[in-house]
Amino acid sequence: MSRSAHPAGPRHADVLPEGHYSAPPTDLNRLDPKVWARTVERDEQGRLTVGGLSVTELREQFGTPAYVLDESDFRARCRAWADAFGKEADVFYAGKAFLSRAVVRWLKEEGLNLDVCSGGELSTALSAGMPAERIAFHGNNKSTEEIQRAVEAGVGRIVLDSFQEIVRVAHIAQSLGKRQRVQIRVTVGVEAHTHEFIATAHEDQKFGIALAGGQAAEAVRRALKLDGLELIGIHSHIGSQIFDMAGFEVSARRVVQLLAEVRDEHGVELPEIDLGGGLGIAYTSDDDPREPHHIAKALTEIVSRECEAAGLRTPRISVEPGRAIVGPTAFTLYEVGTVKPLEGLRTYVSVDGGMSDNIRTALYDAEYSVALVSRTSDAEPMLSRVVGKHCESGDIVVRDAFLPADLAPGDLIAVPATGAYCRSMASNYNHALRPPVVAVQDGEARVIVRRETEEDLLRLDVG
Question: How far apart are the first and last CA of the chain?
Answer without folding.
Answer: 52
